[in-house]
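Researcher: Here's my situation. A collaborator sent me these components and asked whether they could plausibly form a single complex. I don't have experimental data yet, so a predicted model of the whole assembly would be a useful starting point for our discussion.
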Amino acid sequence: MPEAFLDNSLWRNIYCVLAGDSSTCAARDYSSGFFPAGMEWLAFLVSAAIIIFLIVNAVLGGVIVLIWGERRLFGRFQSRTGPNRWGPFGTLTSVADAVKTMFKEDLVPAEADKILFNLAPVLIAAPALTVFAIIPWGVGTYVADLNIGVLFIMAITSLTTLSVLTAAWSSANRIAILSALRSVALLISYEIPMALALVGVIMLAGSMSLGDIIAAQGIPFIIVQPLAFFVFFIAAMAEMARAPFDLTEAESELAAGYLNDYASMKFGLFFLAEFMAEISTAAIVTTLFLSGWKGFDPIPSHFWFGAKLIFVLFVIIWFRMTLPRLRVDQVLKFAWKGLFELTMINIIVTAVLLAILPNPSTSELWIMAAINWPVAIISIWGVSKLLGTAPYSHPQPDPNAPSYPVGSESIPTDAVLGAEPSNAANQAPQAQQEGGN
Amino acid sequence: MFEDYFRQYALLIIFALAAVSVPIGMMTMSYLGQFARIRPSRPSEVKESAYEGGMPPFSDRPARFNFRYYYYALLFVVFDVETIFLFPWAVKYGVMSQQFGFAALGAVLVFLIVVTFGYAYAWRKQALEWVTNE
């Protein structure tokens, strides 16, 4: 782990200011702290609380801004103005929405499982917020730098599946359960290409820590690993259940989907989690593929990260506005038959390149990029040819199949209502009995 | 070193506790609003019925759904375990390829070929398709 990255850590600075000169802060000269010697654990807890308060509020405020920005952009994409009444340029619209959501009447269906019904919003919002613990927002500005950062992201984001199913099952609504089953099939299908796409990045960086991955990016990994970026970005869009993969909340088919029966703040939490997932996905894409907070020197690292984050968010919104919704069979086929193969190709090509050029320098990364781009373009073209061959055909009824009983010409006369049953079958046993006697 | 290692996880646990308390706090605030008479709470039979497009709901939880979902669940388990096997290899691959050369690559290629056989079998059996033309 690079020493400068740890040394500039935000939480460590705050901790050192609070705790004074201790063994952790030996390199720095803090003459006196707020807490006396021997109370370092309290200083640790207080500094952690300060940072967590800052980041949680930044994320929640960011969601408010993102909802406003997304609605304004929707307006622009659809040749209309978008929200523009409350506050300058409509900036207070989402604040008003948040307050309104909080004070709406809370409806719980009579048949609902009350405990699970209340648990589901917490179960979706808490993991969506926890992901932000490991995202480096700038040089050393993170809550925790886990050595298994990428694995942690994969694990914590997959909890969404559980929450979706809990929400639908507890609300005892048929539409919600249909939506949740689709959603679970979608989420688990795209989780595999998403994880496998990151294998190439982990191989190049030699670590799962996000700090190490940023340090390893002499040039951004989007240039070195175009295929991994392509697969990861699409799979992340599907994990967010955004258009064109929004068959979870297909309004024209399933009303609101799995959150059909939720109202008030519980609905608000689902909404919040969706937008927090959008921000965290953009942040993860920025960190893993766009070299995170790295940039030119005079501009601070936080601005670089923010600029890249906003750009990725814009691309996500652009995709949502441009592409129509896909059918469930198309979506699943795309994940299993398209993206899975692309990730396998990426893993093998990257492994071979790394065996030839172990421990690549920046110039060797350029050589890898020069090989990876043609491979990416050819394999994406090949997979699109493979998938685009068979059009969907409705299962046609067999004209020769017997169409009994509706509209049938050949109804057996016995079955016709009111007809006399033939007596031959009934009389035969009697005849045998008489014969026997 | 180890002190720092555990400090990262302690911070993560504190953050997770904060992340759980935020939605619970929001729901509690919304719940308490009805006692302060700033949030209405007037349940009725119509409001408490499940929403099924405006029609009166006529059935319970559906017990039946498409069998295909089980295929995808099974496939997910198989290939997600494969992912878990690949992650540790990917972390140490750079070190291993310096030490052992192409042997490190060959070891994982055997694994990937076995997985590819399973994948090809699933494809052949039409387990990857939503609509089969049988």
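Model: Some features of this prediction you could bring to your collaborator: Residues 1-8, 27-31, 427-437 of chain A have pLDDT under 50 and may be disordered. The longest helix of chain A spans residues 40-77.
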